[in-house]
Specification:
The strands form three sheets. The protein has a five-stranded mixed β-barrel. Strands 10-11-13-15-16 form a five-stranded mixed sheet, with no helix packed on it. Strands 12-14 form a two-stranded parallel ribbon. It has eleven helices and 16 strands. Helix 2 links the parallel strand 2 and strand 3. Helices cover 28% and strands 24% of the residues. The termini are far apart. The protein is globular and about 60 Å long. By secondary structure, the chain is of the alpha/beta class.
Length: 357
């Protein structure tokens, strides 16, 4: 790695899919779903030895800022920044780019979501190192793609072309040129992507040099580029954030920049990866009984199959004659729904009392 490496961790989120455990002030990345650490803590720990805390920016929002600061009490306080308004990933990444550029205009920058499950830290860092090398050697935008394990219609996809080989690395055909980004497909189209074999899930992990991404912002999104320049001005960061961020367009980074970029690379992830987007996905990390009931607590089940049970306090839950349910109990609320309705949990949120949202 030629230049100092910084990391931007995107740690906002609405906290809807894992209700009642999640709330607006406590979204997925602030939950302990699969280990005794929150997903945000796991994301920070995954960078240890690769990027120092002084070079990591954690971007959250005003609703969740207090919880993030309490959770990461030993983290540099000035490296946790709250967005003053809800915008999309283009504005968030522009904010992170301005923060990094103000510190080192030639740095290499990694962008990571805070809510993924990745167990193999060593291989994760090897993949990051390969992506950093690709970004520095080629001067292109680099994304990390996940090899699909099934035809998921809920993810965006990256279609890749010919392999690209670096001069300074044994890349083992892990780097390819991006042909195009594809939006979330319908199930039939997702099946065709899987059959073709040259499609990867877009997990929202990026690597680039600051000059490269600044050039793309200038070409594709001048309003965001102007915001970055205001952030970079000495002593102007807080003012620019407060006065200009809420006026930025609501647009994803993929749509604003990546889909329009003429040259981009995708590095295939060789590490394990899970988005755990619902209670059904989290159930894969719970113990299962012979009837297929998955739980984080003690379950006594009679004539009950394929249920998912989570109790925040580890209370024993008894099931009798029920099948394919999700049962989640916290100190102030209980969710009971059919497991095939898990994606619709967010439809409940607006109907709940404000204190439970």
């Amino acid at each position: 790695m030629l230049n100092p490496t910084y990391a931007l961790i995107l740690a906002g989120g609405s906290g809807e899919r894992f209700w009642p455990l999640s709330r607006r002030a406590r979204p997925k990345q602030l939950l302990r779903l699969v280990s005794n650490k929150t997903l945000l803590e796991e994301t920070v720990a995954r960078l240890e030895g690769f990027v120092s805390h002084e070079r990591i920016l954690i971007l959250t929002n005003t609703e969740q800022e207090a919880a993030v600061r309490k959770l990461l009490a030993g983290f540099p306080k000035e490296n946790i920044v709250a967005e003053p308004a809800k915008r999309d990933t283009a504005a968030a990444i522009a904010l992170g780019t301005g923060w990094v550029a103000a510190r080192d205009h030639a740095a290499t920058m990694i962008v990571l979501p805070a809510d993924h499950v990745i167990a193999d830290r060593a291989t994760f860092q090897e993949t990051l190192a390969l992506a950093v090398g690709a970004a520095e050697e080629t001067g292109e935008l680099v994304t990390i793609g996940i090899k699909p394990t099934w035809a998921c219609p809920g993810f965006g996809y990256i279609e890749h072309g010919e392999p690209v080989h670096l001069r300074k690395s044994n890349d083992k055909n892990m780097i390819h040129r991006v042909v195009r980004f594809r939006e979330k497909p319908n199930p039939d189209l997702a099946e065709s992507f899987l059959r073709k074999g040259n499609f990867r899930w877009n997990a929202g992990m990026f690597v680039w040099s600051v000059p490269t991404v600044l050039s793309e912002f200038n070409r594709r999104a001048p309003e965001l580029a102007d915001f970055i320049s205001k952030l970079r001005a000495q002593g102007k960061f807080e003012n620019a954030l407060r006065e200009r961020f809420s006026k930025l367009p609501r647009i994803s980074f993929d749509y604003a920049i990546m889909e329009k970029a003429e040259r981009g690379l995708v590095v295939e992830a060789s590490f394990d990866w899970d988005d755990i987007g619902s209670w059904r996905a989290v159930a894969n990390y719970f113990e299962k009984d012979r009837q297929g009931n998955a739980a984080n607590c003690t379950v006594v089940a009679v004539d009950s199959t394929n249920n998912i049970v989570f109790d925040k306090n580890g209370t024993t839950i008894a099931l009798l004659g029920v099948h394919n349910l999700i049962v989640v109990r916290t100190g102030d609320a209980v969710l009971i729904c059919h497991r095939h309705q898990a994606e619709k949990i967010k439809d409940l949120i607006g109907k709940l009392p404000p204190e439970l949202q």
